[in-house]
Design goal:
single chain; alpha/beta; Rossmann fold; 6-stranded parallel β-sheet; 12 helices; 33% helix; globular
Length: 360
């Protein structure tokens, strides 16, 4: 889509009080949180999700194809290429904002925008409710960007999905905490049998199922290839690696892709992956034991997320590891524990109600 016709699809969207969700950022987290929220609100107004995730192409295969913009989970998807320059990205954001009269603007994680492009835009947006979706983020980033006064002055509501009161900015008066946001609520998840079929596993399989969740950065795929091999070689289990792209060294018969991945979790006994937002909270929500690696990130604090849970809840179903050998041993131990499935509240429903109340 060229810049000259980038506005046209947005102009075709019904203009009855649409919500615009800014979901820029790499990986799955920003996009999945935004879709989890958007699908809960889409029955009452158009939801436009602006994203630049490199994984969007893997999701668009599930989109409706008869619209000017693709629709995923009820949300219009307005894509900015991940390779776009900062100037190109800022121009596309400006185009998206100027094309419609939005009822509210919802910004995920980065109050001033991923590249700072919202810093000058938000103060000029009068008469529109502005909402920040705030997950845990590095305090160094908050200080370096002087975010506290900016957030205080420019956001009417701050939603914290799942994270605790210990995170930066959680003390601000606009903050409202919800449960984690999920793209599938508990009553929407498939049965254990159906979930195993999604992974290409015989539902009658008697061995335990271990699922490696290879989300995160593309350059980490090699690690997941080594991980799935270590698990398959060391344990008498059925192992699968769930990822959009098959990791190097992952045997084809051990690789699967299904989206949304949370639909596969009811069919497994232990999951292994990073401690990013989606993997961490989806496993907790479904009650699947998780062996977690804390990968370094510029903004997200994965290790702190896990250690905070272990300190507060002392959950025996989450183990933090840093080597392949430790991961295999943790999986072995977790497979011996009694399984407890849980049904948690989907915080996305709570968030939509909070937003609607703020608009009154």
């Amino acid at each position: 889509m060229t810049r000259e016709n980038a506005e046209l699809p947005l102009k075709t969207i019904p203009s009855n009080s649409p919500w615009l969700i800014y979901a820029l950022g790499g990986g799955w987290g920003h996009l999945m949180r935004s879709l989890a929220l958007g699908r809960m609100a889409a029955s009452d107004r158009p939801i436009i999700v602006v994203c630049n995730s490199p994984y969007i192409a893997d999701i668009l295969i599930y989109a409706a194809d008869d619209e000017a913009l693709p629709i995923v989970l009820g949300c219009y998807i307005y894509t900015i290429p991940a390779t776009a320059s900062s100037e190109q990205t800022a121009n596309r954001i400006l185009e998206a904002i100027a094309t419609q009269d939005y009822e509210c603007l919802i910004v995920d994680t980065f109050p001033k925008g991923l590249g700072g492009e919202l810093a000058d835009i938000l103060p000029q947006m009068q008469g529109i409710t502005k909402i920040l979706v705030h997950r845990d983020i590095s305090p160094d980033y908050v200080r370096a960007k002087n975010l506290e006064p900016f957030v205080t002055e420019n956001f009417d509501l701050i939603l914290v999905p799942g994270e605790t009161e210990e995170i930066p900015l959680a003390h601000l008066p606009q903050v409202k905490h919800t449960s984690p946001w999920l793209v599938r609520s508990g009553d929407e998840l498939p049965s254990r049998t159906a979930a195993r079929q999604l992974l290409g596993i015989n539902p009658a399989e008697s061995k335990k199922i271990v699922l490696v969740l290879a989300a995160g950065r593309a350059e980490e795929l090699w690690f997941y290839g080594q991980l799935i091999q270590a698990i398959a070689r060391s344990l008498d289990v059925v192992a699968r690696c769930l990822s959009a792209e098959r990791p190097p060294d992952c045997p084809p018969e051990l690789w699967s892709f299904h989206w949304p991945g949370i639909e596969c979790l009811p069919g497994v006994d232990v999951a292994v992956g990073g401690a990013g937002y989606n993997t961490f909270y989806e496993c907790l929500a479904v009650g699947i034991p998780l062996v977690a690696f804390a990968f370094p990130r510029q903004y997200d604090r994965q290790e702190i997320r896990v250690r905070r849970l272990l300190r507060q809840q002392r959950s025996p179903q989450v183990r933090l590891v840093d080597t392949l050998e430790a991961a295999v041993e943790a999986v072995r131990e977790l497979l011996l524990l009694p399984q407890t499935r849980v049904s948690t509240v989907n915080g996305a429903k709570m968030a939509v109600r909070a937003i609607e109340q703020s608009l009154k």
